[in-house]
Amino acid sequence: MRHVLEVEGVGVRFGGVRALDGVDLRLAAGEVCGLIGPNGAGKTTFFDVVSGIRRPDAGRVLLDGTDITRRSPVWRARHGMRRTFQRQQLFGQLTVADNLLVAQEWRRGGADAGRADGLLDACGLTDVSGAWAGTLPVGRARMVELARAAADRPRVLLLDEPASGMTAGERELLASVVRGLAEESGCAVLLVEHNVAFVMELCSRVVVLDLGTVLAEGAPEAVRADRRVREAYLGAQGDHSAAQS
Ligand SMILES: Nc1ncnc2c1ncn2[C@@H]1O[C@H](COP(=O)(O)OP(=O)(O)OP(=O)(O)O)[C@@H](O)[C@H]1O
Predict the structure, then answer these.
(1) Which residue intervals define the domain ABC transporter in the entry (predicted)?
(2) What is the interface pTM, i.e. ipTM, of the complex?
């Protein structure tokens, strides 16, 4: 299988803490993969390494077979990698539609209003397309972030806690948009999410990080049944995610 994104043996230390220690992860085009694990497992650090915000102490990152470990976040973004953050980062004083058009112009020097309108529609945002993004409630603002990240057809999409603050209905819409991006445009999606039920439902593969290493990975059912995963994470999470779903 051809992989769009390959992460090989990545290690990051913060003083005496090994935030990541020999982590491997590969993403194929059109795949939706979940990255889960307890607080402090290294998920955010992993996203920082993949998106280029943090240079790893060991290992490498490849995009379409090219080593990009030393490339800047901007270079990666220009070559089709997009990331959303745990904290919202919208242009609050631009309209929802302009948030998407700005993203398109930045990459290609030209807006694609048709693509933007289609995404706004798919994300249930058409009625607020002229509203200031900063005025939206959290769930809808997260949908704008997703639409903006997808506005110029990325090949790799990194979503950090995309469902946090969303209602059950919004999560359902989010899942269908993410599935559509993967299936229709072959985008490879990696998402960090604490809502395990949501991850298990949406993702075809799940990777579990614990203390900076990959504890388990595989199909959702296999990961859910893994004794080590239950002990390290799901035992404490089960009730929480059931309550959210
Ligand atoms: N800038 C930093 N300086 C020192 N230690 C850090 C730094 N960033 C992260 N760490 C440590 O690295 C480890 C991994 O942290 P990270 O934030 O990547 O985990 P996480 O899985 O994203 O956690 P959460 O689910 O709480 O967001 C933790 O032990 C954390 O305390």
Answers:
(1) 5-236
(2) 0.96
